[in-house]
Write a structure and sequence with these properties.
four-stranded mixed β-sheet; binds magnesium ion; alpha+beta; binds adenosine-5'-diphosphate; 2 domains; 60s Ribosomal Protein L30, Chain: A
Length: 321
């Protein structure tokens, strides 16, 4: 199968590539065209997944299709943007049609869930690598950024943390667990649900936001730096799922929540007055700490003692000491 047949069969023909609101021209020309309404801005983000670095290889291509798009769309959620479209740059070692068909099905399933349209891409030969660029729309000036946190704000997260990191030994086949534990954790790893509705609900309320991809402590460091504030995380308040605690124990679950990657749950700062109305409206908002004057991220125990660990999250190019 040649390059053009591959693009036509697996991607241009997919339901998610048939255009939709805001897509003026989709796959097939030199560029796609997006319509941007007056008073709106485009939110754009790119994510690359490299086989053996970001996912085990081989792995289930349907699940990979879901996950590769979810991690990219999660960045739109973090900005409070509404998904519009995405491109897919696919580097493949060989043309394996069964693999491509399953990958495209998984991609399409997540695209339909997130109401995002495939509008183009690139197809090349080389080590398996997936690059997604996502486009979203947001009312001008109202995107959630990392830079607006103020001392006195609450530090919040949008749901239980650590499940995806907890699932990693299961994904890698290093450990086994009963289905009641393994299934929910693996689901959180393979099909993270970008918190799009929550991100949009936080527009005009959250003072800073991001999606947690590298662990709560590491990612909070980005808000602290961008906002020139300090963040305090209170260990006892971390929301943890039952399956994670059953699998790793409380200590292990807390470590996964603090330093494990891949959760794609939103972390955000919120003026205290906004907390109760959001929770009363049913939004998943868990307070895990607060914003203070200063810099960096500190971990506190229930008594307020600083118990900050030394190692934080995953970095592709660690800083030299
Ligand atoms: P060009 O040579 O102009 O870069 P290509 O031949 O690479 O264009 O691609 C032809 C069309 O197919 C373009 O519209 C491109 O966006 C689209 N495309 C290529 N690869 C993919 C892919 N993996 N998924 C979706 N669309 C793709
Ligand atoms: Mg090309």
């Amino acid at each position: 199968m040649g390059e053009f047949e591959l693009i036509r069969n697996f991607f241009a023909a997919a339901p998610c590539a048939q255009g939709g609101e805001g897509v003026a021209l989709g796959i097939g020309d030199d560029c796609a065209l997006l319509a941007v309404a007056p008073g709106e801005q485009l939110a754009i983000s790119t994510d690359t997944l490299v086989a053996g670095v970001h996912f085990a290889d081989p792995c289930d291509p349907f699940l990979l299709g879901q996950r590769s798009l979810a991690v990219a769309v999660s960045d739109l959620a973090a900005m409070g943007a509404t998904p519009l479209a995405f491109t897919l740059a696919l580097t493949l070692p060989t043309v394996a049609t069964d693999w491509l068909a399953a990958y495209a099905r998984g991609l399409n399933a997540m695209a339909q869930d997130c109401a995002v349209r495939l509008i183009g891409g690139d197809t090349t030969r080389g080590p398996l690598t997936l690059t997604m660029t996502v486009f979203g729309r947001v009312p001008a000036g109202r995107a959630l950024t990392r830079s607006g946190a103020r001392p006195g704000d609450l530090l919040c997260v949008g749901g239980p943390l650590g499940d995806a990191a907890g699932a990693l030994p299961l994904v890698l086949g290093q450990r086994q667990a009963a289905p009641a534990v393994a299934e929910p954790l693996l689901a959180r790893y393979w099909s993270p649900q970008p918190q799009l509705a929550l991100g949009q609900a936080l527009r005009g309320k959250a003072t800073a936001a991001l999606d947690i991809s590298d662990g709560l402590l590491a990612d909070c460091g980005h808000i602290a730096a961008a906002s020139s504030v300090g963040l305090q995380v209170v260990l006892d308040t971390l929301p943890l799922s039952r399956p994670l605690v059953d699998f790793l124990g409380l200590e292990g679950a807390r470590a996964a929540a603090l330093s494990g990657g891949d959760d794609y749950v939103l972390a955000f700062t919120l003026p205290p007055a906004d907390l109760t109305p959001l929770q009363a409206a049913g939004w998943p908002v868990h307070v895990v700490g607060q914003v203070v004057a200063g810099q960096g991220v500190a971990l506190l125990d229930a008594a307020g003692q600083d118990i900050t660990p030394g190692i934080r999250g995953y970095q592709h190019f660690p800083e030299t000491p």
